[in-house]
Structures are given as C-alpha cells and as structure tokens.
Specification:
Keywords: Transferase. The chain has 172 residues and is of the alpha+beta class. The chain is built from 5 helices and 7 strands, in the order βαααβββαβαββ. The chain is globular, with a radius of gyration of 15 Å. It binds coenzyme A.
C-alpha cells in the first residue's frame, strides 16, 4: 500500500528525459559508485528510441508533490542476451525490469512497490507473460524487495558480482 498519497507514478514522455536520466545517473553513482558507462547505460543514453518510441517498452517514474522525480523503473522486452538463461524464456512474452531506484529519503514508503505494480499493469497490457530481472546480493534490501513483490529466484550466479536472476509469472 502506498504510504504517501502525494506521490504519483507515470510513464515518461520526451519532456521528462532530462530529469529522469539525471536522477538515474545520480542513483547509479550512489548505488554502484560508478559514472556513466556506454555499455551499461546504453538504454539511458538512447532513452527516446528505447523507452518512448519502442512498443513494449516504457520508463516509469514516481514524482513527489513538487514534481521532482523520486523513483524510477524501466520496462523493456528481454533480449535474451544472458547466456546462463538461454532456453528459460520465450522472448516474445518476456519483459525485463531495470533501473529500479528510489531516492534514499523516500524509501520504505511503498514507492518501489507502486512502481512495480504499474510496471506489471503495463506488462499485462503489452502481452507479456513473465517478467525477468537480475539484481545483486550485495545491494542492501534489493533481494528482499523483489521477493516481497512476488519475484522468485531463477538462478544464483554467485561470483564477485553476486548476481541473482529472478522472475515472476503474470496471472492473466
Ligand atoms: C530496493 C528499493 C528500490 C526499494 O524501494 P522502496 O520504495 O523502499 O520499497 P517499498 O517501500 O515498496 O518496500 C516494499 C517491501 O520491500 C521490502 N524491502 C524494501 N527495502 C528493504 C530493505 N532495505 N531491507 C529489507 N526489506 C526491504 C520490505 O518487505 C518492504 O515492505 P515493508 O516496508 O512493509 O517492510 C530501494 O531500496 C532502492 O532504490 N535501493 C537502491 C537501489 C537498488 O538496490 N535497486 C534495486 C536494484 S535491482
């Protein structure tokens, strides 16, 4: 349940690209301690093509009462790029979630959950049957968050990046 009713979530359009990418890059620096990377951030650097013009993809943001972005969540068709997952997913019916960040000051107020709820609604409308994502066990609370949203572990890769792959099958 949303614990702050003055937060609203919407799918982003062209006028939101600058504040959304600024927020996401700030969060990437804070969460992963890195700057902009042309490989990892290819989506943010090609925001309009990927998240606005491509059917089946969208970028959601949560806004506070001052119209500032306080959370983001990207939805896009899963492209099958991860070797260890080959054969698990029907690429025509699988979405991937990424760029899930909530401003530190706004955490544990249901904003992440609200973004996921909206993403699931979008995915159902787009005809996806399953949602895939990966996260890292070293991120405080990230696995617990996805677990609380009904995502189940598909594969624990371990290793230095502590990557875990998770999935959720959508009910019709
Ligand atoms: C993970 C993240 C998106 C969660 O956002 P949020 O808005 O705080 O999440 P919610 O308030 O909707 O939390 C829903 C539930 O998830 C679980 N949860 C969330 N954060 C948690 C934490 N730090 N520790 C344990 N459980 C947590 C709880 O069950 C929580 O319900 P509760 O508050 O009633 O106990 C946020 O902490 C974040 O941006 N973290 C840094 C970036 C990151 O790790 N992103 C995920 C990368 S894949």
């Amino acid at each position: 349940m949303l614990k702050n009713t003055r937060i609203f979530v919407k799918r982003l359009g062209n006028s939101d690209i600058q504040p959304a990418t600024e927020f996401a890059f700030k969060m990437i620096k804070e969460v992963y301690g890195r700057g902009i990377d042309p490989v990892w951030d290819h989506d943010l650097l090609n925001f309009e093509d990927l998240y606005i013009k491509t059917r089946g993809n969208t970028f959601l943001a949560a806004f506070n009462e001052n119209g500032e972005i306080v959370g983001t969540l990207a939805v896009r068709r899963y492209d099958g790029r991860i070797k260890s997952l080959e054969g698990f997913y029907d690429l025509k019916a699988t979405a991937e979630l990424a760029k899930c960040y909530v401003d530190r000051k706004y955490r544990r107020r249901g904003i992440g959950s609200l973004l996921v709820k909206e993403a699931e609604q979008f995915c159902r409308g787009a005809g996806y049957k399953v949602i895939y994502l990966h996260t890292h066990m070293y991120l405080p609370g990230a696995y617990e968050f996805w677990h609380s949203q009904g995502f189940k572990l598909r594969l624990d890769e371990g290793g230095p990046r502590q990557t875990v792959h998770m999935e959720k099958f959508l009910s019709p």
